[in-house]
Amino acid sequence: MYKREIDFMDESQFPIKSEYKCKKNPVKGLSQPFENKKLTKEEIINAVSKMMIDSLGESLDV
Amino acid sequence: MSNCSDILLQDYLYQQHPDYTYIFDSNTNDFKLRDRNMCIDSIFDILNGICKKIITHYKLGLNTNCDAVRLDQVLYKYSRDVFGVTRLNARVNNLKSHLTEKDRKNLLQCFDYGMKIDSASPYVHRRIAVLFYWLSALKPFSVVLPVNAISKIEDKLKHMVDFHNEYISYIFVESALQPLTLKLNIHDNKDLFYYFLYDLHYRKLSRSSLEAFIYPYLCKSN
């Protein structure tokens, strides 16, 4: 009974690259392209700890 | 889960091939279960390593703890939210010899089931938002301050101590993003970072509001 509005529309009336066509036939995938590197635990630990220490600063003096 | 980024990209509960398709057990005709203890141990190693480096660098006397049961629940609920549709797709496709194409299509109308995330492949920032949501809801991380903690150190690292769970959660997410050559840069702005941790700690944030907030702060790491 409560179908999506998009399903009642006539798909043939819309051009191929229209927003309607994109929503009706979504392409599955992650929006941001990224690599998936194999990093060791040590590399991850060093990278993240360096990042957090750099943001805090070298010294704790106020 | 040999790689930390697998926490974001792979199902915590069930085994998957490297191409993220599920592995079925021929005896039960359902997914094969993963060794969750190994995943938790791997996460512990990384977080302990990072905390040790930070604590040693600033010569702090903090003792950090993690409740393994709560962390297990965080990852269980994260996987249920993020991989719910993928699991449904895999189970229905496994039965395709017993279903007509019309039945299969009807079953896969995921918008009809009220799932929190009705996508088979949610965006990275959406996954991070769900992970932050469950980490702040279940709070698996804690810290024990020594009795004679110096107040000067507490002022500078107020957010690290007051919102320790959220701080370690942020480190956890950064660790998971490293192999994807991505990072969050909320921590570059001290005030913004403090208020982000404050809100995660005290407020009942929703997954969608976290998703909207996090998106502009996700960037490529060097």
Report what the structure shows.
Chain A has helices at 19-24, 41-56. Chain A is 35% helix and 0% strand. Chain A contains two helices and no strands. Chain A has 62 residues and is mainly α. Chain B is mainly α and 222 residues long. In chain B, the strands form three sheets. A two-stranded antiparallel ribbon of chain B has the order 1-2. Chain B has a two-stranded antiparallel sheet with strand order 3-4. In chain B, helix 2 (36-57) crosses helix 8 and helix 5 (124-138) packs across helix 10. The A-B interface holds A 4, 28-32, 34-39, 41-49, 51-53, 55-56, 60-62 and B 3-5, 9, 42, 45-46, 49-50, 53-54, 57-58, 111, 119-121, 123-124, 152-153, 155-157, 171, 174-175, 178-183, 187-188, 190, 193, 218, 220-221.
The largest pleated sheet of chain A is described as:
none
Q: Overall pLDDT of chain A, averaged? A: 68
Low-confidence stretches of chain B: none
**What is the end-to-end distance of chain B?**
24 Å
Q: Identify the biggest protein-protein contact and residues per side.
A: A-B, 29 and 40 residues
Order of helices and strands of chain A: HH
Number of helices of chain B: 10
Output the radius of gyration of chain A.
Answer: 24 Å
Mean of the pLDDT scores of chain B? 86
- Any idea what the shape of chain A is? rod-shaped
Computed structural class of chain B: mainly alpha
Largest sheet: number of strands, sense, barrel closure of chain B: 2 strands, antiparallel
Backbone structural class of chain A: mainly alpha
Low-confidence stretches of chain A: none
Number of DSSP strand runs of chain B: 6
Walk across the major sheet of chain B and give the strand order: 1-2
Percent range for β-strand residues of chain A = under 5%
Give the overall silhouette of chain B: elongated
Proportion of residues in helical segments of chain B: 40-55%
Quote the distance from N terminus to C terminus of chain A: 64 Å
The topology string of helices and strands of chain B comes to HEEHEHHHEHHHEHHE
